[in-house]
Amino acid sequence: MKKTLKIILLSIATILLLIILSAIAIPVLFKEKIKSKIELVINESVNAEVSFGDYKLGFFRNFPNISFSLDNITVKGIEKFENDTLASVKSVNLILNLSSLFKKTGIEVKSIIIDNANVKTIVLSDGSANWDIMKETEEEVPAETDSSDFKILLKKVSLFNSSLLYTDYESDINVSLYGINSELTGDLTASETDLLIKLGADQLIYTMEGMKYIDRARLYTELDLLADLDNYKFTFRDNFLTLNDLKILFSGWVSMPEDDIETDLEFRSEQNSFKTLLSLVPAFYMKDFSNLRADGEFSLSGSAKGVYSDADSTLPDIELNLKIKNGLVKYPSLPEQINNINLSSELFVDGKDMDKTTLNIQSFHMEMAGNPFDMSLALKTPVSDPDIKGSVKGKINLDALSKALPLDSIGLSGLIDMSVVMDGRLSMIEKKQYEQFKASGSLNISDMQAGIKDYPEVKIKSAQFEFTPAYAEMKQAILGIEKNSDFSISGKLENYIPYILSDAVIKGNLNLRSKLVDFTEIMSKLGAETTEEDDTTSLSVIKVPENIDFDFTALIDEFRYGKIRANNVRGHLIVRDGTVSIKETGMNILGGQVSLNALYDTRDTLKPVVKAELALQQMGIRDAFNTFNTVQKLAPAAKGVEGKMTAKLSYSSLLRKDFMPVIRTITGGGKLETEEVKLLESASFDKMKEVLKLRNDYTNVFKDINISFKINEGRIYVSPFNTRVGNIKMNISGDQGIDQTLNYVIKTEIPRAELGSSVNSLIDNMSAQAAMFGLAFKPAEIMKINVKVTGTFGKPVITPFFGDTPVEGGPTIKEAATDAARQLVDDAADQAREKARIEAQKQGDLLVQEAEQRAAQIRDEAVKLAEKIRKEADEQAQRLIKEAESKGTVAKMAAGKGAEKIKAEAEKRAQQVIKEADDKANALVEEAKLKREELINKI
User: Where do the domains of the chain lie?
Assistant: First the structure.
């Protein structure tokens, strides 16, 4: 902390020093050169980009003092902070004692006035801070200085209309201050001085680990300090801090002799009105607070004494006492009130040994709508063996609660009735000494309805829980979500006490029964986006907790999600180790049956993964296209296919925030079989019939299809398979992608009778002319023609190329026709060019094929290297956590943060390796394609 303060003060002082020196040393006539020189000198001294709009040097307004001002100052980060602006300031004005410029005692700065400063400070997960911008120097600082050394003698600093944002990714803390006005006065050059600090902010927001503890509170503080600047000791004399209406008085001292911080502070509330305490609660303060009736008294006091040290991870000892007496809350516009609010609580945090921390809520009591509610809790030895003693008893009438508090965005009704007692140590549960741990009671919910803005409405008709030391049993919970979805849940939750006390794994065996789950309706209330973009950086992960081990058996009569309609859904769902597994789950859908095994894995929160194995029986192909976005992306031709399919598919992919797969990351494979399909619309088949001169009304029914395929990075690779269309035999192979591109080869065997009359006339004519030269042969009745299908699904390109056609007792028709043509046709050059073009095409295709094989090898090697990077990072993270286990809770928390950082950095490196390999592979293939085009164009 002290080091950070020194860095900040040194940064400010150095920048001001450089600005003043540069501005005064150069004549005013060279204003633009002065500005450029100032910026150059500053930027050479800091690891940041500093710029400003204009500067002024005035001699008359503050005579005999002079003023120096800078406007529109910005300090932007570089490298890992290149997208962040550390500070932007509308203006900085310095009032200088003119005569001090000519003295050796130093320049006396009467005041610094800063207007509209917006500061954004950031600590990354690796601990680096964006304000640590001063460049390191190898020059040693002289041990002694003479009287001519340059000094700045500062008297006053004022700050107006400013803001400060602090984001700590390492500790997951966010602090925001808006509308800051502050003034510091005192002689900052003296060894011992009086400092008076006044600071106010229109809004203070404090968030930690996603929980907002202070929301838009007004802040004001006055600090009267005796500052020993030689020893960095600050003694608080007459000091106070207000948050909204709550005023806290504090006294004591803070000292920073070295890197540690020593504290001896005490604080207490000045007022005892219960209403001042409620001003900190947003639900009360934001809703007609001035008219709120809040009777009763409270007292708040505490202390922070001890040493904060990074070296041995110690903190000051903290004591906090909060008491409330005869509290009452009543809004004049609402019929109900909460009364007889009483609380007596104490918290002690031992900064050196967290296991000595204690929490004691001797009693908490309140009454609402005639229903009392009581609670007590005592916690000791929270680290080594949590010792808990507590009870809760009472009824909460949610109807009355909604009539006592102005819950604008929340609708509540129903009754919660609870009576639970616990007394014992965690070790008793771990050793299964259930008879020694006291845990009994019940929790009953009836006719509960909860509606929260941007969330689906939940209705709990009834829910019954019974508590024992070993487990909590859910007798039966009958609930609904929104209008359509219903659930009936029962089962047991084991190990729930260690889960509460030490974050241990909670285990559950639950049964779920539902007539209808309308996931479309549920997701619509969550505001889920269904964007088509595959941007994995925008993923909003629903992280599965790693300390939950639930085993669900589910039976759902009907399930709806978008266009999906499934019936008779039965399955087994396991939540374990940060994953959700779906095992042996079946359903009826799209006229067929589906069995499913799947895994949803969020252990890597940056890249949530889904893996699945599906078996489909007699599912409608066109229905699948109309229902599933994945089918539309990977197999757009299915839109025009009528028929039933049986298929097996295994795949894995990243997930978008709407739980749909990121198409380009899908990998997998499988098989698809169908006895018969009918092409209702297919641009490729229509174009193929045109090129082969088949009749327009030729059958579009394909028979006996058995396809094996693989999926890699969103592209489907189809192994060669046979099929029949009418009397035409086909062998098809190739690939297609999410960019709609096609790359197929279709080898056909076509009876001459199926070809158009023009083709047959040409063949007969060539045979007749060949016979004139004594070449006797009979053309085969089966023509072997190969077809190359490229382009896209919407605009296919069909290129036929002919293989050898057999003849009876003689050469092939291609050879005979070529000889005859050479004798009969003078223009043999055309045939030569065509042959050369085909050969060039083959050579070019071979180049592309070899490039694609090499590209695949490059990608595979990159994936292996990326996995190695991730594995090494995981091992390093585990070692870090293991080494911290014996060092206490704080060390474990720090190790956890460090482990997350290690894995995040490793993932970044792994992704970079994969990206670079992908770029190299793509470039290799593109180069081969260009060479193929060059070969063809040379013909």
Answer: 257-407, 719-823, 828-937
